[in-house]
Amino acid sequence: MNRTEFSQLIAHKTKLPREIVDIVLNSAIAEIRNSLSRGEEVSLSGLGKFVAEYRKSTTKHLFSQSIVVTTKPHFVPKFYSFSALKRALAADFSDF
After folding, report:
1. What distances in angstroms separate CA 12 from CA 22, 25, 47, 66, one per listed residue?
2. How far is CA 76 from the centre of its chain?
3. Residue 42 CA from chain centroid, whole number
């Protein structure tokens, strides 16, 4: 499911105009992004936790090209699902 399909589904289930749902969805995504950029975790009950994890610089040797590549330290977004979501998925897919 992509963002458009997701907002259409929420609009249908809540009987809200899709434009309103899009505004709320875009605001939620922007706030998650802003919180992560400030180094904060975002925890959504029943779903999971978004965090920005620090990656230190690394040096890799590309022998096939005879070069050394060094990456800068940076943050990467991570999502950790809560056990309630894992249990729901396990129950939904137990028939496979």
Report:
1. 12, 14, 21, 56
2. 11
3. 10
